[in-house]
Amino acid sequence: MLRVDFSGRELARLRMARSVDPLWEIALSLHMLQTRQAALVFDPWRREVHGALERSGLTAAVRGLMLLCPPAAYFPDFLTPGGEPDLDTGLEKVMSTPRQRLAAELSRLYAGAPLPSGVRRLAEGSPEALRWLGTALRRYYTVAVEPYLPAIRTEAAADRSERAEAALTGGAEGLLASYGVLPEWRCEGTALRAPYPMDREIRLDGRTLTLVPGFFCVRAPLALADDELPPVLVHPLSPAPGWLERSRPSESTPPAAQLIGTSRAQLLGLLDRPMTTTGLAAALDLAPSTTSRHTSVLREAGLLTSRRSGLCVLHRRTPLGEALLEGALR
Questions:
Q1: What confidence tens digit (pLDDT) does each residue in 100-154 have?
Q2: Is there a contact between 236 and 245 (Cβ–Cβ < 8 Å)?
Q3: I need a labelling partner for 180 at 20 to 30 A (CA). Which of 43, 132, 252, 294 fits?
Q4: Overall number of domains in the chain
């Protein structure tokens, strides 16, 4: 069980990451490839990625990455430096990890056992090994994560809208309580309890805890092993079964897209639950100004409603919008 007890000051400083972290998604997806967790949800992705890795000639490189990132209670913190919104900056931080830290974390990973030769060279800080690591992580990302970014961003944006609404209506306590709806997670006043491979307490000591959504995270959260690092808690987005099929573009243009355009039809389709303009823009990879124009047109057509909640505007699909998406309009 994982325990996080917040003081009033620490609770007020609780923050959400803007979206998924590319390096956490790399690590989490590597875990998923090595297990059968959430088979109904992720097996179609596993089959697709295994085939793509083989066609790309990346199978051996990914086996090397798995030696660094096993689905165990511990894997090295330097692989997920955090706080970097883009892959390039994150990879630069990984490749700049000091030799002393590489040696300490990789030795902990193998707990006194002999290090495999490639891992040993990395632990020694070999520039060639670090370049290999950066290249392998980037190539793996382009095959196993990047093609699925539309679905990942959609889930992350919907989650952020839900958390933002909880924070606007209930403050920091409301934001914390919103995580209590996750399976086996509990919020007890200003304390958070979650499933974890071992008993562990995250001591904040006045620091800010950042909550990071994880698409490939299943049930239990993940936290950095080193308590001296800025505290992070990665929580599951829990995509529903069939997410991969639903993310594929239809071979024929849906009736709603024929009537209102593809982007507006996609926007309307995202509103299974209320979302902010910012969340919609992130999910659709559009500029906020463009998204705002789309919501204005849809609102004037009676297909969605917009309501201000604190500093945000939440958009909801109307029954007319539902009917349009379902093709019930004639």
A1: 999 999 999 999 789 999 999 999 999 999 999 999 999 999 999 999 998 898 8
A2: no
A3: 43
A4: 3
Look up residue 206 and give its two tokens. Answer: 């006045």
**Domain assignment present for 95:** yes
> Which structural domain range is residue 40 located in?
22-148
| Chain segment 191-230, per-residue pLDDT in tens | 999 998 889 999 999 999 999 999 999 989 999 999 999 9
CA dihedral 209, 66, 145, 218 (to 10 degrees): -50
The residues pairing with 276 across neighbouring beta strands, listed in sequence order, are: 314
Q: What is the CATH number of the domain that holds 272?
A: 1.10.10.10
Token pair of 8 as six digits? 């009033």
What's the chain's Rg over C-alpha atoms? Answer: 21
- Specify whether 104 is located in the same domain as 206: no
330 occurs within a structural domain: no
Name, in order, each residue with C-beta under 8 angstroms of 19's C-beta and a sequence gap of 6 or more. 85, 153, 156, 157, 160, 213, 282
